[in-house]
Automatic annotation (TrEMBL):
A single cellular component GO annotation: plasma membrane
Keyword field: ATP-binding, Nucleotide-binding, Transport
Sequence ranges assigned to domain ABC transporter in this UniProt record: 54-300
Transmembrane segments: none
CDD domains: ABC_Mj1267_LivG_branched
Keyword Transport: yes
Classification via InterPro entries: AAA+_ATPase, ABC_AA/LPS_Transport, ABC_transporter-like_ATP-bd, ABC_transporter-like_CS, BCA_ABC_TP_C, P-loop_NTPase
Protein name per UniProt: Branched-chain amino acid transport system ATP-binding protein
Length: 356
């Protein structure tokens, strides 16, 4: 988007210092259990969930003659981390915009936590506990880190006419909001940056700020749009840990991401979209082995192994040669079989011990 500030390139030394600040690079990554038993019956597009937080039906959004989203039925499991993946133009962002009230569908209904959200504007959706992260725009970059955090608080007295006329009320509330903001900034190790312009942050720090800002409203569901985009590999582990922490703290996470290795490492459930439709669903291990998914997507997105980046596997174990083979092949059958072999090697549960 043109209004976004391009993420600054992170000098290696700064990035290393930042990473050390966020996460001890010598510490072994702590293995966290995946949440299982999320669905009822066979894992297939639209499968029912044991405890869904979002249920969408017949959601369709067209732009002129193009159908960007055409989702028959979709349930997002509560208390788990769900990844929404798919090739460019699959409709992921459009679906995100619809679910969060930032766009209106041509037709369709959906509920969040049992309440219908059809036609509910974005600010009310956020008040109900469903928040999404936003990329740092030029305008937000000109606010300080702390001011950005305060913008994330919902239900402020100043938003209500009569309360806004009584300074004592909103001053007290402002102090409370500031305390919460500083607490979250400390957790994300950004407290020292509180007075700095947000535009001065590195790519990774911006992602942390986006996440911290979303948490200001104490959400039940956090929706992350490409949390790893533009993040220096040195900060990757810290970001992954923060996302896993959200689940441990009882939140549900839904994220759009192109990095398959991130999906493999942290997602409990994966939903695959292509041409506006949900084409596959399941746990990461089975989805990555689905030939339809490999055909539609995986062959071209295996360039970087987060396992290597985060020290969970060595470069030899990750075998980068298969990645190159899969992404350069032009023959569909070859691609599928190369992708299948790779996906099996990469995503089979019995390779879990590789990470340790
Ligand atoms: N405002 C719009 N006007 C016209 N077409 C749009 C608009 N927004 C999205 N589209 C089109 O809808 C389709 C789905 O786009 P969307 O951005 O949702 O895909 P995506 O899966 O998020 O892709 P990416 O991974 O590249 O971000 C694309 O063909 C896109 O060009």
């Amino acid at each position: 988007m043109s209004s976004e500030i391009p993420a600054p390139t992170e000098p290696t030394t700064d990035a290393a210092a930042e990473a050390a600040d966020q996460h001890d690079p010598t510490a072994a990554p702590v293995e966290r259990p995946k949440t299982t038993g999320l669905h009822v019956g066979d894992a297939k597009p639209g499968v029912a969930k044991v405890d869904p937080i979002i249920v969408a039906d017949g959601v369709r959004r067209t732009f002129g003659g193009l159908t960007a989203v055409d989702v028959e039925h979709l349930e997002i499991p509560r208390g788990a981390i769900t990844a929404l993946i798919g090739p460019n133009g699959a409709g992921k962002t459009t679906l995100f915009n619809l679910l969060t009230g930032f766009d209106k569908p041509n037709e369709g209904t959906w509920t969040f936590d049992g309440k219908s959200l059809s036609g509910v504007p974005a600010f009310k959706v956020a008040r109900l506990g469903q928040v999404r992260t936003f990329q740092l725009t030029k305008a937000l970059g000109l606010l300080t880190v702390l001011e950005n955090m305060k913008l994330g608080a919902t239900g402020q007295r100043g938003e209500r006419f009569w309360s806004s006329l009584i300074p004592a009320l909103w001053r007290k509330q402002d102090a409370k909001i500031e305390a919460r903001a500083m607490g979250l900034l400390a957790k994300f190790k950004l407290d020292a940056k509180a007075p700095d312009f947000a535009a001065s942050l590195s790519g990774g720090q911006r992602k942390l700020l986006e996440m911290a800002r979303a948490l200001m409203s104490e959400p039940k569901l956090v929706m992350l749009d490409e949390p790893m985009a533009g993040v220096n590999p040195a900060l990757t582990q810290s970001l992954l840990d923060h996302i896993l922490d959200l689940k441990d703290e009882g939140m549900t996470v839904l994220f759009v991401e192109h990095d398959m290795h991130m999906v493999r490492h942290i997602a409990d459930w994966v939903i695959v979209m292509a041409e506006g439709k949900v084409v596959a669903e399941g746990d990461p291990y089975s989805v990555m082995r689905d030939p339809a998914v490999i055909d539609a997507y995986l062959g071209a997105h295996q360039e970087l192994d987060l396992g290597v980046v985060t020290g969970r596997v060595t470069a030899e174990e990750a075998d980068p040669t298969t990645d190159a083979a899969a992404s350069t092949s032009v023959d569909a059958d070859e691609l599928a079989s190369a992708g299948t072999a790779e996906a099996e090697a990469e995503f089979a549960p019995d390779t879990e011990e590789k990470k340790k």
